[in-house]
C-alpha cells in the first residue's frame, strides 16, 4: 500500500520530532499529529517557533519549513485517524502508579485508549504502528481490540520503536543507526519501510518479527543504562583509590569490543525512559518467573539510585556534615543538555535530599522554566508546596544563582556552564567555595587555581 496520509497520536518528544522529519523527507505524504492536550497542540502551532513545546536543536527549522504544507498539528483526533492510511501510536507509557505492577509495569491505558479509538472511528483499512516503547507482546492486545470490531476493516499492526535520544533527536532521526520494523504482514512492513527509505539507506532498515522488535527496544535501553551504571559503579571505587574514572573510561573505551560511547560517569542517569523501561523489563522477567534475570537488570536501577544519593551525601559531608541554612546553587535541571525535558532528572532527587537537610536551593537552567522546577519537586510529595516555594529559588541567570552560595552542584552538562566566568563566580561565593561537578565538565586544576575546592565524580 502506498502511504499518502499519516496520523500520529501523541505530540510529545517522540511524536513531534519524528513526524516532522518524516514530513520533511516525504513532501508527498500529509502528516497530522494529534493530541488530547490542547495546550500542547497550540504550542506546536505557535507562530513563534521558539515556543514549540519540545526544545531540540534543529527542530524549529524543520517544523517551520513543513508546518502548514504537509505537517499539521490538531486536536481533531477522530478525523485524523479516519483520514489516515497509517497511524502511529506515540503516546506516553509511564510506569504504573497504582494497582498490580505499581512502580514497575508500564501503564498501557493510553495505548489501549488509542487502539479503542482507532477501532471506533476507522472506516477504511489501516496500518497501525506502535511507536511508543511497549512491553513485549503488547501488539497482541492491540490486535485483539482491532480485530474484533466486526466492521470488516483490516488492520495490520507493526512495531517500529524509536531510538532517538533527546538533545540530539533531529540528528538521530536524520541519520539513524537503524530503523527497526517488526510485523507479520510483509506488504505492511514494506509500506512503512518505503516511508523511511526516503532518507534512510535500505541496509539500515531492519525487519523482524513483532516480538523481537518490541523486546529489542527495552533491551537497547537496558544495555545503554547498564553501561552508565557500570561506569558509575567504578567511579565510587576511583574516589577511594586515586584512580580517575575519566581516564579509566578512556582506557577501556579504546578497546573496540567495548567502544568509547556511553561511558561518561555522572551524578546518575535520568530521562523519561531508562528507569521506566528497565523496571518494565524487570517486571516482565518476574512475570515469567525469571528471577535471576529480573534481579540482574534491577541492579542497574539500584546502582543509579545509589549514585544520586551518594552525590548528595558527599556534598553534605564535605560541607562539614551540614547544609542546614546554607545556599546551594544547582546548575542544570534538565536530565541532560540541549533539552528542556526534566523527567527523572538527577537534579530533582539531589535537590530533594538537600532540602530534607534544610538547605536553601538556587536553581538555574538555560531551558527549564521556574514552574517546571516547582512542579517536579511538588510531584514528589516530600514536603508542602509552600515549603518548596520558600526554600527553592529559580534564577534565569547563572550568576544570580551562585551569588553568596556555599557550594555549586553541577547537575547538567550544558555547554554554557563550561564557559561561565568562573573567577567572577568565585568572587561572589561564600568561602571556602565548593564545586561538586556531577558531570565532570570543568577542569580540576583550573578550578583549584582560582581557589575553588573542586569535587568531581570518580576523582
Ligand atoms: P510525551 O509524554 O512527551 O508525549 C506523549 C503525548 O501523548 C502527550 O502529549 C499526551 O498528551 C499524548 N496522549 C496520551 N494519550 C493520548 C490519547 N489517548 N490520545 C491522544 N494523545 C494522547 O512522551 P514521549 O517522550 O514522546 O514518549 C512517547 C513514547 O515514546 C513512550 O512510550 C516513550 O517510552 C517512547 N520513547 C521516548 C523517547 C524520548 O526520548 N522521549 C525516545 C524513544 C522512545
Ligand atoms: C535514551 C536512549 O539513548 C535512546 O536511544 C532512547 O530512544 C531513549 O532513551 C528513549 O527510549 O527514551 P535519552 O534518555 O533521551 O535517550 O538520552 P541519553 O543520551 O540516553 O541519556 C540518558 C541519561 O543518561 C542522561 O541523564 C544522560 O546524562 C545519562 N548518561 C548518558 C550518562 O550519565 N553517561 C553517559 O555516558 C551517557
From TrEMBL:
Pfam families assigned to the protein according to its UniProt record, in alphabetical order: UDPG_MGDP_dh (PF00984), UDPG_MGDP_dh_C (PF03720), UDPG_MGDP_dh_N (PF03721)
GO biological process, one term: glycosaminoglycan biosynthetic process
Active site: 273 (nucleophile)
Binding site for NAD(+): 10-15, 35, 40, 91-95, 132-133, 166, 273-276, 343
UDP-glucose/GDP-mannose dehydrogenase C-terminal domain: residues covered: 329-444
Pathway the protein contributes to: Nucleotide-sugar biosynthesis; UDP-alpha-D-glucuronate biosynthesis; UDP-alpha-D-glucuronate from UDP-alpha-D-glucose: step 1/1
InterPro entries assigned to the protein according to its UniProt record, in alphabetical order: 6-PGluconate_DH-like_C_sf, NAD(P)-bd_dom_sf, UDP-Glc/GDP-Man, UDP-Glc/GDP-Man_DH_C, UDP-Glc/GDP-Man_DH_C_sf, UDP-Glc/GDP-Man_DH_dimer, UDP-Glc/GDP-Man_DH_N, UDPglc_DH_euk
Enzyme class: oxidoreductase
EC numbers on record: 1.1.1.22
Keyword field: NAD, Oxidoreductase
Protein purpose: Catalyzes the conversion of UDP-glucose into UDP-glucuronate, one of the precursors of teichuronic acid.
Entry's family note: Belongs to the UDP-glucose/GDP-mannose dehydrogenase family.
Protein name: UDP-glucose 6-dehydrogenase
Organism: Seonamhaeicola algicola
Amino acid at each position: 500500500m502506498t502511504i499518502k496520509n499519516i496520523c500520529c497520536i501523541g505530540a510529545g518528544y517522540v511524536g513531534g520530532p519524528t513526524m516532522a522529519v518524516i514530513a520533511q523527507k516525504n513532501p508527498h505524504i500529509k502528516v497530522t499529529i494529534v493530541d488530547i492536550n490542547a495546550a500542547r497542540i497550540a504550542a506546536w502551532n505557535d507562530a513563534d517557533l521558539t515556543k514549540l513545546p519540545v526544545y531540540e536543536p534543529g527542530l524549529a527549522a524543520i517544523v517551520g519549513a513543513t508546518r502548514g504544507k504537509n505537517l499539521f498539528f490538531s486536536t481533531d483526533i477522530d478525523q485524523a485517524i479516519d483520514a489516515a492510511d497509517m497511524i502511529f501510536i506515540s503516546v506516553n507509557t509511564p510506569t504504573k502508579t497504582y494497582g498490580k505492577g505499581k512502580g514497575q509495569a508500564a501503564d498501557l491505558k493510553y495505548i489501549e485508549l488509542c487502539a479503542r479509538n482507532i477501532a471506533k472511528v476507522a472506516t477504511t483499512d489501516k496500518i497501525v504502528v506502535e511507536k511508543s516503547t511497549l512491553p513485549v507482546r503488547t501488539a497482541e492486545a492491540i490486535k485483539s481490540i482491532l480485530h474484533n470490531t466486526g466492521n470488516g476493516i483490516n488492520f495490520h499492526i507493526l512495531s517500529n520503536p524509536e531510538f532517538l535520544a533527546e538533545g540530539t533527536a533531529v540528528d538521530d532521526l536524520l541519520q539513524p543507526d537503524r530503523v527497526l520494523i517488526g510485523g507479520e504482514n510483509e506488504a505492511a512492513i514494506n509500506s512503512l519501510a518505503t516511508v523511511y527509505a526516503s532518507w534512510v539507506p535500505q541496509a539500515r532498515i531492519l525487519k523482524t518479527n513483532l516480538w523481537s522488535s518490541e523486546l529489542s527496544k527495552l533491551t537497547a535501553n537496558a544495555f545503554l543504562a547498564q553501561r552508565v551504571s557500570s561506569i558509575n559503579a567504578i567511579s565510587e571505587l576511583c574516589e577511594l583509590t586515586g584512580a580517575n574514572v575519566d581516564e579509566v573510561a578512556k582506557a577501556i573505551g579504546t578497546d573496540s569490543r567495548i567502544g568509547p560511547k556511553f561511558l561518561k560517569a555522572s551524578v546518575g542517569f535520568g530521562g523519561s525512559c531508562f528507569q521506566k523501561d528497565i523496571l518494565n523489563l524487570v517486571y516482565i522477567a518476574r512475570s515469567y518467573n525469571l528471577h535471576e534475570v529480573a534481579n540482574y537488570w534491577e541492579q542497574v536501577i539500584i546502582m543509579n539510585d545509589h549514585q544520586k544519593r551518594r552525590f548528595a551525601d558527599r556534598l553534605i559531608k564535605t560541607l562539614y556534615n551540614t547544609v542546614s541554612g546554607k545556599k546551594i546553587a544547582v546548575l542544570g535541571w534538565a536530565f541532560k543538555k540541549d533539552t528542556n525535558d526534566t523527567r527523572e532528572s538527577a537534579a530533582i532527587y539531589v535537590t530533594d535530599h538537600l532540602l530534607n537537610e534544610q538547605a536553601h536551593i538556587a536553581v538555574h537552567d538555560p531551558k527549564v522554566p521556574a514552574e517546571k522546577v516547582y512542579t517536579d519537586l511538588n510531584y514528589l510529595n516530600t514536603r508542602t508546596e509552600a515549603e518548596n516555594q520558600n526554600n527553592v529559588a529559580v534564577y534565569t541567570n547563572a550568576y544570580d544563582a551562585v551569588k553568596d552560595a556555599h557550594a555549586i552542584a553541577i547537575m547538567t552538562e550544558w555547554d554554557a556552564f563550561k564557559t561561565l566566568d568562573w573567577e567572577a563566580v568565585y568572587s561572589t561565593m561564600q568561602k571556602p567555595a565548593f564545586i561538586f561537578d556531577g558531570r565532570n565538565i570543568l577542569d580540576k586544576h583550573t578550578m583549584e587555581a582560582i581557589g575553588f575546592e573542586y569535587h568531581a565524580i570518580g576523582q
